[in-house]
Design goal:
The chain has about 300 residues and is of the alpha+beta class. Helix content is about 30%, strand content about 30%. The protein contains 10 helices and 15 strands. Strands 5, 6, 7, 8, 9, 10, 11, 12, 13, 14 and 15 form an 11-stranded antiparallel sheet that branches. The longest helix has 15 residues, at about 155-170. The chain starts with a strand and ends in a 7-residue tail after the last strand. Bound molecules: magnesium ion.
Length: about 300
């Protein structure tokens, strides 16, 4: 088990401690390690697998940790188990994991597995690639994450709401051209979100119909719209009721290409990356084995 002690604004370690005894009591042998960064987590996962860990690599953290572990375990037979200790936990939500870490730990114990898709972003200028578990995005979301990074003490939904509002003040809508399996979109946008999971940003049902094992990515684009209108419509996304609004464009496909007038930064699962547009985003079908709760679990 690898834990990201920085997850959930530094409270992940405290959340994990009461869980360990229950895993041991259920017959798990747990080797615990703490990750210091995205790359460190990837290295720890590789090390665990190379040392012969073939039962499962469990990660205690949020979507940033999940995506790093997914990158490390991509294409391997060793399953990834996720203990939701982050702020957003959209990967865990997508898998149907209980969001209470103690209940989630019990759900991991039987070792039921399932194979899911991942996504991969390629920056066309540099050739740099990144694997993602939940979402890749451009536009307002990047500015929201920048704002969130400045208020590490905020938690939960408040954190994303603050980030979105603050990001709106600095983001200027950009013109983008998006192609989803040949289907074209071209307009000024607030943001483009390409997701493997139905939710992002801590439970916003941005692509409510997304499935994590259907071999396609779901795309949601919000066209340029006024700030007051965006703010007034924003609560709808928690119920997925933004679908069908005139400024919302959605598509589903295995290959997405995005070009923009000037380079736009790309964010992946809560992190602003060094990748910029133009990008290609592709599905990695059945790229990851995960531990999944049994249908009867709470
Ligand atoms: Mg899908």
């Amino acid at each position: 088990m690898i834990i990201n002690p920085a997850a959930r604004s530094g409270r992940a370690r405290g959340l994990l401690l009461p869980i360990l005894p229950s895993l041991l009591a259920r017959g798990w042998r747990v080797d615990a390690a703490e990750s210091r960064s995205h790359q460190d987590l990837i290295d720890l996962v590789h090390e665990a697998v190379n040392r012969g860990c073939h039962t499962a690599v469990a990660i205690g953290g949020g979507d940033g940790s999940a995506t790093a572990a997914a990158q490390a375990l991509r294409g391997q037979v060793v399953p990834l188990g996720i203990l939701p200790l982050g702020t957003g936990n959209d990967f865990a939500r997508g898998l149907g994991m209980p969001l209470d870490p103690r209940i989630a730990a019990r759900a991991l114990v039987p070792g039921r597995t399932r194979t899911i898709d991942l996504g991969e972003v390629t920056a066309l200028t540099t050739g740099e690639t990144r694997t993602f578990a939940c979402v890749a995005g451009i536009g307002l979301d990047v500015f929201a994450l920048e704002a969130i990074a400045r208020v590490p003490w905020l938690t939960g939904r408040l954190k994303y709401t603050y980030g979105g509002l603050r990001g709106l003040l600095s983001y200027e809508p950009q013109h983008v051209r998006v192609t989803v399996d040949g289907q074209e979109f071209s307009d000024e946008v607030m943001f483009v979100a390409i997701t493997n999971t139905p939710t992002y940003g801590g439970g916003m049902r941005i692509n409510p119909g997304a499935l994590m094992d259907d071999g396609t990515l779901d795309v949601c684009i919000v066209r340029r719209t006024s700030r007051p209108r965006l703010i007034s419509r924003y609560p709808l996304v928690y119920a997925g009721r933004h679908v069908g609004l005139p400024e919302v464009w959605q598509a589903r496909g295995g290959r997405v290409e995005i070009a923009s007038g000037r380079p736009m930064r790309v964010c992946i699962d809560g992190e602003i990356t060094s990748l910029t547009t133009p990008i290609r985003v592709e599905i990695v079908p059945r790229g990851l084995v995960v531990l999944t709760p049994s249908p009867g679990d709470p």
